[in-house]
Amino acid sequence: MLGPNLTAAARRKTRQVRVGSVLVGADAPISVQSMTTTKTSDVDGTLQQIYALAGAGADIVRCTCNREEAAEGLARIVPRSPVPIIADIHNNHRMALAALDAGVHGLRLNPGNITDPDKIKEVAAAARDRGVSIRIGVNAGSLDSRLYQKYGGATPEALVESARVELAYFEEVGFADVKISVKASYVPLMIEAYRLLADTTDHPLHLGVTEAGPGVAGLIKGTAGIATLLAEGIGDTIRYSLTADPVEDLIACPSCGRAEIDVIAVANAAMAAFGEQEIPLQVAVMGCVVNGPGEARDADLGIAAGRRKGHLFIKGRNVAVIPEDEMVHALVHYAERLLVEGADAVLASSDLEGARKAAEADRAALLDEKGADANASETAVELIRRHLRDGEA
Questions:
Q1: Residues 106, 84 contacting (CB under 8 angstroms)
Q2: Dihedral angle sign, alpha carbons of residues 39, 89, 249, 293
């Protein structure tokens, strides 16, 4: 509790924007973002990472969209993601348009990379029409050369002017659903740029120290910048930019429209059930039996949901059918058996054929009910391909 002579800085008043189901700014809680490190064209690998990040508490996840294959990957990722997805756009404004076709919930544009006003306004107008927010992501390391020369370097004033120039283009087409960041690797520069920006706009601010570095050193550097500003009431959403895996986690399913369970809830329950046990096994929780055992075939042990049952598998082979409400208990039980008896003995004592037939029956029923493309992702992929071909004509 604060003493009589101490006061907390009031949080800066901002307008509010929406990123999918997450509100940013005004009185919304400060949201936490992260970014995948996979190639976005690797749909299942990227979804695996998104689910791990969501399970670790990320509210929003950003994925790179730097080529057509990445945009097509987003079309398959977005409907299966448990959290809103932002597309990180590099040098090609057409990738921003393709990401909008893919159904992303937000875009990140770097003013230092896309500098043509007409292209910037085209993207802003398309986002406006779709109700998708944009983050103006200024970066000291990629500042527009004209501003670098004007200010004699990447100064706080240069970073803020970069953001305001971009914002003016957006305003020309009536687009205002904007977040802004002015990141730098040098913490004092980052802090001063955000302070200046906070004095000149009421748009919500995304805080981060870019290229903070690896491990503990990067964490300390990021915290120094982010925490300083939060203590001053500045900041509405945050991201740590670390040179590291974004999260360690138990394997959880990249879910889809066929998912029969809340994958994250079951994965978290499994982690809690294993507690402090040092069981050297890789455990998978999969949303449905259609692709689950195959996608997690390298896991030592896993379970996939299907028609109010859990299909338990070891090294991709179905070994038992478990009532849905006993899935977590079964994972712990079989993990303990594997440690004591070994995989070969557990497999030998199981009704493999019966488990396989039960899984196949549920798999066929789910495919018949919801189809092979449960999210109509391929329709979005075709739209992306058509628009990109039209743009080349």
A1: yes
A2: negative
Pick from 92, 139, 135: which is nearest to 115 by CA?
Answer: 92
Which CATH superfamily is 16-239 part of? Dihydropteroate synthase-like (3.20.20.20)
CATH class, domain 257-370, is alpha beta
355-366 burial string, b = 16+ CB within 10 Å, else e? Answer: bbebbeebbeeb
Q: Is 240 exposed, middle or buried (0-12, 13-18, 19+ CB in 10 A)?
A: buried
3-state secondary structure of 312: strand
Half-sphere exposure of 246 (CA within 13 A, CB side): 28
104 in Cβ contact with 136 (< 8 Å): no
Number of Cβ atoms within 10 Å of the Cβ of 44: 16
Give residue limits of the domains in the chain: 16-239, 257-370
Chain centroid to Cα 306, Å, comes to 26
Is residue 16 over pLDDT 80?
yes
pLDDT, one tens digit per residue, over 322-354 is: 888 898 899 889 988 998 898 899 999 999 999
Token pair 């348009």: residue = 97
Is 320 in a helix, a strand, or coil? strand
What the block records as the tokens of 18 is 């929406």
pLDDT in tens, 229-274: 999 999 999 987 654 554 447 565 545 555 566 777 777 788 778 7
